[in-house]
């Protein structure tokens, strides 16, 4: 079985979610090749070997530094062909999802996204995907010869015990038609822990009263090496940027720890966090629905509890 | 401008998810169905574009007769006519093929969809249709403005936004804040009754994944409550029990 994994990079390093995808492919058993597109150093690419890839194809064309969906779909399908890969694995992302969808239609491969576990290949090719925004799972059998697996964060554990991968240049044919869409600019936070990648997420809701009070959320997040998130009304009012909005209509996260501060726990918010490993809720209302979805809870005023908690964590880290 | 909006018919976001028939069927007992929230954003923006510069908005759903009240609601919100392709929408490639077959001869300037359906959360039908029609598909789109035959879009990416420019026709998978959800008014509801809802039969198409069984996540354990005056205890639990810090 030959498996190709599409790996993404940001700020000069491979994304953790992509390394997880490599570990996922390695855990399936088989020959794992990764493909990276755009400018990145050879050293950074070798890291894919630790996660389980034997080889990395590198398309080092700076025209592809921005994620042009059609061009990427074209490049990756050519790599699958070249490697004789029947299976493409990739992590869920704003680039991976639309790219995989196009490849699926291009090569007639069944594409299943939001996969939460390794496939069962004892009879057919069965995967477990998360559906109804994390409220249930569907076990589906992919019936096409070629398959695309879009994996959810934490579908497998990231292993980093392999050897360096060899890096090979790959020069696919790209056409002007692939560049019909122009990316005119990007407006992107740098140096921050990205929400979908984070192992810990600290989120604030309307209970925080106003954007001027986010300092304590950020301080707690920084102490924990966490990303910051928020509820929908908080981003709707403009207290926080839209890409931090967690929930049914926002980002879905599955970190090791989700900390909800001053968020009531409406079902649409829970939909975005229900696959977190642990949930900690801080709310002054003991009846807040979030407590019934939590592992740990504190009833109290966030303005008192959060600074105390940050201080206690700092003390424990010493 | 001729716009197509593809809508899903999905359980209300507060619906309790349960299954029947040996976990092979969704239990729709007592469940209210709605236009997919993301599709609702697409529809709202489509109606705004039509109101600003003329044209028509057609809604399309692949579904069984049960979805017609949802389609009528889209007509009440401001779509001009509707098409239902009479099939159970069980597989993304199948659904995409139906949309592509309908659209290929219909000359739409713009096809709008939701970022994802909230039942299967695939986020893939727009990309598949884009490939089948050989046109760009952009998702998730937060802002969409059209001037002549050029469109300016903002797309959400991890940690920010990306601004794009492209020519019509293309497909947009929409999300907030592209427009505000529209609530149908009385006049809309009345006029929706007489708007055209055409039912057509599906083309035969490849099916790529078959459902074996649904499954519910394991029940959540009891929450451990910690006194607000004892955050040290919480830190100890996070460290030694949950092992997350
Ligand atoms: C179709 C649809 C989709 C939606 N999608 C989403 C989504 O993706 N994400 C999302 O978040 N919401 C979503 N919503 C909205 C959702 O229903 C709720 O309205 C929203 O989550 C509430 O946000 P909140 O908890 O911040 O605010 P509130 O409900 O106002 O809760 C504030 C909480 O803060 C607590 N509080 C107040 N003061 C303090 C204090 N000093 N210390 C501690 N606690 C305090 C209160 O007790 C309360 O529990 C959606 C709704 C619909 C209809
Ligand atoms: N059965 C369907 N009928 C019409 N449009 C659909 C259907 N299923 C999906 N779509 C469209 O495709 C988008 C993405 O769906 P999905 O790939 O299932 O997440 C939805 O938001 C809809 O706009």
From TrEMBL, chain A:
Keywords: Electron transport, Transport. It holds the Pfam family ETF. Belongs to the ETF alpha-subunit/FixB family. This is Electron transfer flavoprotein subunit alpha. Residues 3-183 form the Electron transfer flavoprotein alpha/beta-subunit N-terminal domain. The keyword Electron transport applies. InterPro entries: DHS-like_NAD/FAD-binding_dom (IPR029035), ETF_a/b_N (IPR014730), ETF_a/FixB (IPR001308), ETF_asu_C (IPR014731), Rossmann-like_a/b/a_fold (IPR014729). SMART domains: ETF. Gene3D superfamilies: HUPs, TPP-binding domain. Coiled coil: none annotated.
UniProtKB/TrEMBL annotation, chain B:
It comes from the Bacteria. The keyword Electron transport applies. InterPro entries: ETF_a/b_N, ETF_b, ETF_beta_N, Rossmann-like_a/b/a_fold. CDD domains: ETF_beta. The keyword Electron transport applies. Keywords: Electron transport, Transport. SUPFAM superfamilies: Adenine nucleotide alpha hydrolases-like. Residues 23-209 form the Electron transfer flavoprotein alpha/beta-subunit N-terminal domain. It holds the Pfam family ETF. Belongs to the ETF beta-subunit/FixA family. This is Electron transfer flavoprotein subunit beta. It comes from Marivirga lumbricoides.
């Amino acid at each position: 079985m030959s498996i190709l994994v599409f790996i993404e990079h940001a700020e000069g390093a491979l994304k953790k979610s992509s390394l997880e995808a490599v570990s996922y492919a390695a855990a399936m058993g088989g020959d794992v090749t990764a493909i990276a597109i755009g400018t990145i150093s050879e050293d950074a690419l070798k890291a894919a070997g630790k996660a389980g890839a034997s080889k990395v194809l590198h398309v080092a064309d700076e025209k592809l530094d921005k994620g042009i969906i059609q061009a990427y779909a074209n490049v990756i399908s050519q790599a699958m062909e070249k490697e004789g890969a029947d299976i493409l694995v990739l992590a869920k992302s704003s680039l991976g999802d639309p790219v995989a969808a196009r490849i699926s239609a291009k090569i007639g491969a069944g594409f299943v996204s939001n996969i939460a576990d390794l496939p069962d290949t004892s009879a057919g090719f069965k995967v477990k995907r998360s559906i109804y925004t994390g409220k249930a799972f569907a076990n589906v059998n992919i019936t096409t010869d070629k398959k695309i697996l879009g994996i959810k964060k934490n579908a497998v554990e990231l292993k980093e015990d392999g050897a360096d991968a060899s890096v090979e240049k790959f020069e696919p044919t790209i056409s002007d038609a692939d560049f019909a869409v122009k990316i005119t600019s990007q407006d992107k936070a740098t140096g921050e822990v990205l929400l979908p990648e984070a192992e810990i997420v600290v989120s604030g809701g309307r209970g925080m009263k106003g954007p001027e009070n986010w300092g304590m959320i950020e301080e707690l997040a920084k102490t924990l090496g966490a990303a910051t998130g928020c509820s929908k009304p908080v981003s709707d009012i403009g207290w926080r940027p839209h890409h931090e909005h967690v929930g049914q209509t926002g980002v879905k996260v599955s970190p090791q720890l989700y900390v909800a501060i001053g968020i009531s726990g409406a079902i649409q918010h829970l939909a975005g966090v229900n696959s977190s490993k642990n949930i900690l809720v801080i709310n002054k209302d003991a009846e807040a629905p979030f407590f019934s979805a939590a592992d740990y809870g504190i009833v109290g005023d966030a303005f008192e509890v959060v600074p105390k908690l940050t201080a206690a964590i700092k003390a424990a880290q010493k | 401008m001729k716009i197509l909006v593809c809508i899903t018919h999905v359980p209300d976001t507060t619906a309790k998810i349960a299954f029947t028939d040996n976990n092979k069927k969704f239990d729709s007992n007592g469940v209210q169905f709605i236009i997919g929230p993301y599709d609702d954003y697409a529809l709202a923006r489509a109606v705004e574009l039509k109101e600003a510069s003329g044209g028509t908005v057609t809604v399309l759903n692949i579904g069984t007769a049960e979805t017609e009240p949802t389609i009528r609601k889209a007509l009440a919100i401001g779509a001009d006519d509707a098409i239902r392709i009479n099939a159970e929408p069980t597989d993304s490639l199948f659904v995409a093929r139906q949309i592509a077959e309908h659209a290929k001869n219909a000359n739409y300037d713009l096809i709008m969809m939701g970022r994802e359906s909230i039942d299967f959360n695939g986020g893939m039908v727009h990309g598949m249709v884009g490939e089948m029609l050989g046109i760009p598909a952009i998702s998730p789109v937060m802002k969409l403005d059209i001037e002549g035959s050029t469109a300016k879009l903002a797309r959400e990416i991890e940690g920010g936004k990306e601004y794009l420019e492209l020519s019509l026709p293309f497909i947009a998978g929409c999300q907030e804040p592209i427009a505000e959800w529209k609530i149908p008014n009385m006049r809309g509801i009345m006029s929706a009754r007489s708007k055209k809802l055409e039912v057509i039969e599906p083309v035969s198409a490849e099916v790529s994944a078959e459902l074996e069984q649904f499954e519910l996540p394991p029940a959540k354990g009891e929450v451990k409550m910690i006194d607000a005056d004892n955050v040290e205890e919480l830190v100890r639990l996070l460290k030694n029990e949950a092992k997350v810090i």
